[in-house]
Amino acid sequence: MNPPITDNLVLGRQLRCPHGLLATEIGDYIFASNRNMIETTIDYFSLQGGESLLEIGFGNGKHLSYLFSKAKGIYYTGIEHSLPMIQQARINNQKLEEEGSVVFLQGIGEELPTFATSFSVCFSVNTYYFITDFEKYFKQIYNLLIDKGKLVLGYIDKEFGEQMPFTKEVFTFYSNSRLKELFLSIGFSSFEIFSFTEEIFSKNGKVVTRPFYVAVINK
């Protein structure tokens, strides 16, 4: 699926926070491009049922059917900056929202909301690149997790990401060794990496091998 925008800098900004007339198309493009990575990330939750989950950057929420197929009785809270994506996620998950199984919240800046409960798992796919104060932000997530809770991140390889034409603004990539150093300095007890590759189509229609990782980071 090709992106609906040809200007690479504009595309990069839209990937960070879809907005305007093309927001819905951008959301569909993000999901199509990242579906395999999202589902692979979800596979590492080791859900037993009954967990409370927090997701940062849920886009149009089309992946939630896969998430809810993994275990019964889970409770999901999602934080997303893009209002059009929140609207699409509610349309795409109307039944889950009516059941009270999901809550969609709009994020404001890099300050996370306070919650009455803690979360077993926090997860996010292709979003850490946009965080400006990395340690402060993920310290908030650390504090939202239960004891022995986990943060699970899906993300593309640093060298691959930096070569993409739309990442020249708003994206900051880290090596796996640097990510491990940062998360352990925040207070997480362990950082485990799983490596994958997938075939995707570039903007010009060529097949490209994209390396990506899933990091399981334990409190």
Can you describe this structure?
The protein has a single domain (8-218), classed as Rossmann fold, CATH 3.40.50.150. The chain has eight helices and seven strands. It has helices at 8-16, 23-42, 64-68, 83-92, 94-99, 134-144, 158-163, 176-186, and strands at residues 52-56, 75-80, 102-106, 119-125, 145-156, 190-201, 207-218. It starts with 7 loop residues before the first helix and ends with a strand. The mean pLDDT is 93.
In short:
By secondary structure, the protein is α/β, with parallel strands linked by helices.
Topology at a glance:
Elements: H1 8-16, H2 23-42, E1 52-56, H3 64-68, E2 75-80, H4 83-92, H5 94-99, E3 102-106, E4 119-125, H6 134-144, E5 145-156, H7 158-163, H8 176-186, E6 190-201, E7 207-218
Helix pairs in contact: 6-8
What portion of the residues fall into strands of 2 or more residues? 25-35%
CATH-level-4 superfamily name: Vaccinia Virus protein VP39
From the coordinates shown, what is the CATH architecture? 3-Layer(aba) Sandwich
Count, helices: 8
CATH fold group? Rossmann fold
Q: Main sheet, how many strands, which sense, barrel?
A: 7 strands, mixed
Radius of gyration: 17 Å
Mind telling me the CATH class?
Alpha Beta
How widely separated are the two ends? 37 Å
Give the uncertain stretches in residue-range form.
none
The largest sheet has its strands arranged as 3-2-1-4-5-7-6
- Total DSSP E strands: 7
N to C succession of SSEs: HHEHEHHEEHEHHEE
* SSE class: alpha/beta
Mean pLDDT: 93
Q: What count of domains describes the coordinates? A: 1
- So what's the oligomer here? single chain
Q: What would you call the shape?
A: globular
Specify the helix fraction band. Answer: 25-40%
